[in-house]
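In the previous lecture we treated proteins in isolation. Real proteins rarely work alone, and many bind small molecules. This record shows how such a complex is specified: first the sequence, then the SMILES for nicotinamide-adenine-dinucleotide.
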Amino acid sequence: MSEALRVLEHVARQEKLTLSYQQADVGGAGIDRHGQALPASTLKVCEQSDAILFGSVGGPKWEKLPPAQQPERASLLPLRKHFTLFANIRPGLLYRELTDASPLKTERIPDGIDIVCIRELTGGIYFGKKETTTLADGDVQAMDTMVYRKSEIERILATAVTTARARKKKLCSIDKANVLETSVLWRKTVIDYIAKNAPDLELSHMYVDNAAMQLARNPNQFDVFVTENMFGDILSDEMAVICGSLGMLSSASLGTGKNSLGLPFGLYEPAGGTAPDIAGKGIANPCAQILSAALMLRYSFGLGEIATRIEAAVKKTVTSGTRTGDIAFGRPAVGTKAMADAIIANL
Ligand SMILES: NC(=O)c1ccc[n+]([C@@H]2O[C@H](COP(=O)([O-])OP(=O)(O)OC[C@H]3O[C@@H](n4cnc5c(N)ncnc54)[C@H](O)[C@@H]3O)[C@@H](O)[C@H]2O)c1
Ligand SMILES: CC(C)[C@H](C(=O)O)[C@@H](O)C(=O)O
Ligand SMILES: [Mg+2]
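The predicted 3D structure, ligand included, written as tokens:
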């Protein structure tokens, strides 16, 4: 986050913009300093802001807390729900020059990867009824329910249509309609919605297990794919690794809310987590956070040109060989700060 803020401050200086931001504790920092993962003061700061640039939460230190109090469930999910951020846009981009960082064979992705995951973010099994009960026979039973309404599916489809129209007009909807009732509704809603509202799109459907395989086999057969919350969580991590590293995967979460500029209010965060295995060593890849900041400038501040400039600087830095360990693969690696320095130099 500190490197992303340095990049933002740098572009603000260059463009003579005033960037006004407040930092607020969330997740483990919220628990440690305020006794709650999402302190009321933090929520207030978010409500008064035009956008949220989110770090990552969670980690071994808080894993022993009751599940409902842990950072992920008690801060990130409530934030998504509070602002109805139902549309999670995760671009899966692997530069041609970086194909060696992908576990896929270069022959399969000679031009890199360029796909987009649209994940429904405020419904499904994440937010359905949850319960753990001890049964009469002493056995313990836990339950999570997956619930979707047609209207929830339609509103994420609107985002998917806009995204697909701005690209190759090709949309794949991913579900498990051979097993799940929610997926049967999902597929029917997709068919009806696209026929009525976007007949210009090339629409396909795929079961999620096959999609997981197809992503690894030939990712560029997709252009934009849209899916429910948990499938999107899992497929976006797979997408991240075939695109080189979770450290490169940014994301934007949007709802219907508008900010004081009349633009979409959004939460912008890397798709990855707190990377406990490398935390504190100064070697994490800052690109996902920096690219998330670029998405924030584009969607919530209407500063698309500056966002494109940041994206180009990240690409130039990585493709010219300056890389953190997660994407270095045998080349000399730089640390987090040096990576951001190089990006700033390219800006
Ligand atoms: N948005 C979020 O806040 C978010 C997202 C995912 C996971 N988490 C939380 O993070 C914690 C760790 O989860 P996990 O280990 O399953 O996932 P993770 O994403 O933190 O790490 C998975 C792997 O990817 C690597 N990685 C991730 N980001 C990287 C980066 N920027 N640079 C280099 N390598 C990077 C890690 O080193 C690790 O090997 C858990 O508490 C989890 O709940 C939070
Ligand atoms: C941390 C966790 C709650 C979160 C999710 O499952 O949505 C993360 O994995 C993500 O992909 O943003
Ligand atoms: Mg995830």
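Summary for your notes: The longest strand covers residues 87-94. The chain has eleven helices and ten strands.
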